[in-house]
Amino acid sequence: MPRTVAPFPKPTIMKGGMRETQAIVERIKRVNRGYQRLELAVDRSLSSLLPGQALLVRRISKDYEAENWHPYLRELWFPVDILASNMLVLEQPAREQFLPGQLLSILGPIGKPLRFRQKLRNLLLIAYETPPTPLLLMLPPLLAQGTSITLVAMGAARDYDCAHLPEEVEIIQANDDHSWQDMVMTVGWADQAFVLVGAGLELTRFAEVMRLIRARRQDVPANTIFGFFQRQLPCGVGACQACMLPIRGAAKLQCLDGPAFDLTQLRLA
């Protein structure tokens, strides 16, 4: 059974409803050869996180005090599950060292929830050169409403072991040239798609995926294919504008307007 969590300090409310709270690592479970899951006891304000929303996290010591608070040098974490009103599950590389009872400082929520079509029947998820972790929180609620989900792993994403994911999700391992069997049907059948790429060359990689999709799907209307950004955020509140993205007719921020943007509107490399 989880330990009874000591009362957390009163949350500090920041811009856009974001709060600074503390979390405790309750359990650690290895889920595959490369990743572990952390069960975190968190402030109840985080139990309403929706797919797409993230946290800015840093480890702290037990003598952490308000005057030591710092918004920078935090990691962007996307929850993969919500167990209860005060329990979140996060997935981290197995090489990272965590211990039960470890304290974390959390800023969140970051970003806007993903927008799904009202009658979403078929969803395509593509992970390219990155593990699909940020996409996993959407799986349980969408499967519960009967959505058919296909996850395509391209490039380095193929190294991620998907055996612990819900068996209802169809997993496709793309070939070295990023193609796969029945690709035309998979792409054409999707009512909506979310593309996740490795940080660093996002616009170039999104452009590569869009070329693959357009070559196999004649019509790609707006609000159908979304790019999911996961680059690290210096502030998370729009102050530094380091996460500004080139959108047709505007400029938007990943931390405030993201993480998902219509790929037909992004100015891709």
The end-to-end span amounts to 50 Å
Give the number of helices.
4
Q: How many individual domains?
A: 2
Could you give the order of the helices and strands? EEEEEEEEEHEEHEHEEEHE
Q: Approximately how much helix is present in the residues?
A: 10-25%
Mean pLDDT: 89
Under CATH, the topology of the largest domain can be stated as Rossmann fold
What composes the largest sheet? 8 strands, antiparallel
| Helix and strand composition category | mainly beta
Low-pLDDT segments: 1-7
CATH architecture of the largest domain: 3-Layer(aba) Sandwich
Record field, number of beta strands: 16
Range of strand content: 25-35%
Radius of gyration: 19 Å
Overall CATH class of the largest domain: Alpha Beta
The coarse overall form would be: globular
